[in-house]
Amino acid sequence: MERTHEKYYLSLDVGGTFIKHALIDKSGHIICLAKVTTPINLADFLETIKQIVQSYLPTIRAVCFSCPGKIDTKSGTVYFGGALLYLDKFSIKTYIETEFSIPCTITNDGKAAALAELWRGQLEGIANGGVITLGTGVGGGLVINGNLLEGTNFQAGEISYMLMSRDSPIALSEIAGSMGSAVRFIEEASNLLQLPTSNGVIVFKELQKNNALIQPLFEEYCRNITIIISNIQTVVDLERVAIGGGISEQPLLIEEIRRQYRLMRETSKGILEMLHPISIVACEFRNEAGLMGALYHLLIQIEEKQLDYWTIIVD
């Protein structure tokens, strides 16, 4: 990578499989982008992060992270960590700032997706909106009055834990994270098609043919997403919801969610008519959502003077 006198920001998107990292300027233009395999323990994770940051040090003024789990954005501490349980109760912010004497921020990956859309995507100019990310579970972030909603315990937008059943005791299969799981849907559809492995590409090719084996499953899955959207709508009265995650790249998914949403309203016997219809769109940012959202979170903290200015020059 060519070194210049200009300084940028280093954004890292930590996932269960890969850690993506990018050099980005304050306008959101990606200078360079790469990824490495996510380590399976904390010691190797810290060594990997250290090597990444060191490789960019001559050109960066701050570091920002997007990460799974409940994130205390003030202390930079990760709780639970999603698939990366070794990050539980670890402060990435403290580690980076102690190791490199450079400012660091961190935010939840679902909230990062919402921030990316708020900054330069489908929620730009939207006062009240949300992002729902469909993957192993259901993540997301809510924007209220133009600002990301963190919640008292940094848990706002943890859609996976939304209850979808009145059964007692509550079964994991009956929460939004399971019923709205894109991974689960693809696995079940692949099984119905008798595929040797789970294959989303083949599943959607068959859906485009209206394959009767999996069409009912697809419709049920999309209806589950509309129930999630309607439940959110009753509480925060959003104008727009953007659907993210790898599966959102399939136009057929967005079309079917919209269709199921219309059907649900039409057959609700006036109940949902009391709620203003919400706009449902695909996210603008997908693979780069975490990187962009993490940076916007950093820039907001700079603007609100929550970070030390002695090492950061934004102009």
Automatic annotation (TrEMBL):
SUPFAM superfamilies: Actin-like ATPase domain. It is an enzyme of class 2 (transferase). Pfam families: ROK. Gene3D superfamilies: 3.30.420.40. Keywords: Transferase. Its EC number is 2.7.1.-. Belongs to the ROK (NagC/XylR) family. PANTHER family: ROK (REPRESSOR, ORF, KINASE) FAMILY (PTHR18964), SUGAR KINASE (PTHR18964:SF170). This is ROK family protein. It comes from Carnobacterium maltaromaticum LMA28.
